[in-house]
């Protein structure tokens, strides 16, 4: 089953995509410690031994957003490179 939220697709699966995991119980006890346990990398929070969600530090989230922005810009550049070229003389501008 998948859900769509603001153009982001969330797939339900049980593959763990982080090296560090914490139980939801341990997350509730000390959320900051749980997130920092990943040493700056994402931490998967398990509920009944299945991934419930991932936690990451603000710096890591910012890096991800920057990379996504770069990918979008690269896509736009690629689309424009495929278009018609117009020769321009800088001296005529």
Strand order of the largest sheet: 3-4-5
Outline the biggest β-sheet: 3 strands, mixed
CATH class value: Alpha Beta
Structural class: alpha+beta
Overall radius of gyration? 21 Å
Estimate nothing, just give the exact number of structural domains.
1
Give the uncertain stretches in residue-range form: 1-5
CATH fold label: YefM-like fold
Tell the overall outline. Answer: elongated
- Please tally the β strands and state the result: 5
Helicity level, as a percent range? 25-40%
Measured distance between first and last alpha carbons: 55 Å
Mean pLDDT: 86
CATH architecture: 3-Layer(aba) Sandwich
Number of discrete helical segments: 3
Q: Please, could you describe this protein's structure?
A:
This protein is of the alpha+beta class. It has one domain (15-83): YefM-like fold, CATH 3.40.1620. The protein is built from 3 helices and 5 strands, in the order βββααββα. It has helices spanning 24-29, 31-36, 58-81, and strands at residues 2-5, 8-11, 20-23, 43-47, 50-55. A 3-stranded mixed sheet has the order 3-4-5. Strands 1-2 form a two-stranded antiparallel sheet. The protein is elongated and about 70 Å long.
Can you give me a brief rundown of this structure?
39% of the residues lie in helices and 25% in strands.
Secondary structure: elements and pairs:
Blueprint (H helix, E strand, L loop, with lengths): L1 E4 L2 E4 L8 E4 H6 L1 H6 L6 E5 L2 E6 L2 H24 L12
Parallel strand pairs: 3-4
Antiparallel strand pairs: 1-2, 4-5
Task: Summarize this structure as a short list of keywords or feature phrases.
single chain, 93 residues, alpha+beta, YefM-like fold, two-stranded antiparallel sheet, 3 helices, disordered N terminus
């Amino acid at each position: 089953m998948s859900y769509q939220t603001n153009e982001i697709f969330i797939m339900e699966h049980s593959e763990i995509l982080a090296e560090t995991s914490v139980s939801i119980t341990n997350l509730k006890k000390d959320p900051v410690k749980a997130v920092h346990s990943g040493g700056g990398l994402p931490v998967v929070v398990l509920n009944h031994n299945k991934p419930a969600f991932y936690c990451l530090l603000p710096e890591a989230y910012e890096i991800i957003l920057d990379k996504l922005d770069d990918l979008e810009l690269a896509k736009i550049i690629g689309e424009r490179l495929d278009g018609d070229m117009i020769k321009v003389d800088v001296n005529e501008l």
